[in-house]
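**Fold in tokens:**
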Amino acid sequence: MEKKEDVYRTVTKPSTEILYKDRKSKFYAQVHPISSEDDVKPIVEGLRKKYHTANHVCYAWQLGTENLMYRANDDGEPNNSAGMPIYGQIQSFDVTNVLITVTRIFGGTKLGVGGLIQAYKTAAQMALESAKIVKKTIKVQLRLQFEYPFMDIVMRTIKQKNLDIVSQKLELDCELVISVRLSESEEVFQLFDEMHGVDVTPIE
């Protein structure tokens, strides 16, 4: 049975903002942790307020581990000259659950599409290089239901396998929710599934 990949790379706090300059245009770039698409708008609006002279707040984000969602936004720059070069760096650094913003203050000289692509890409790259990227483990939860007499064997297995208990209800009918690394989930599921008197179900 092949092991599932269960580690991903992300950031847990915003990176320090970096400044990249090209022909008097200023590009302020930053990496932000996000947990849903709803996190994006307040961050972008906050940057528009902070840099009220900015011409563009361009960004790209990616969410998820197995089913990836992403978006790239040029915010008025020529098509694919800003958002996609930023997104390319998210792919290059292999990070997820992140938003990268690049705020541009125009310096009077046009950079052309090629120049813009290079500038947004470089700014995003510099922001990611300054960010503290961490590895996180994907975990899944299993619900165990059993009668009290089976408590001993269930607890012994949990201890042997070094599993985390998320919640427990210990009465005549017991219910435990345990957290398991994705790569070990099938093996652990099978273990409890074959255990007499124990009902195991994955929690979606």
About this structure: The CA atoms of residues 16 and 175 lie 45 Å apart. The mean pLDDT is 91. The radius of gyration is 23 Å. The first strand starts at residue 7 and ends at 11.
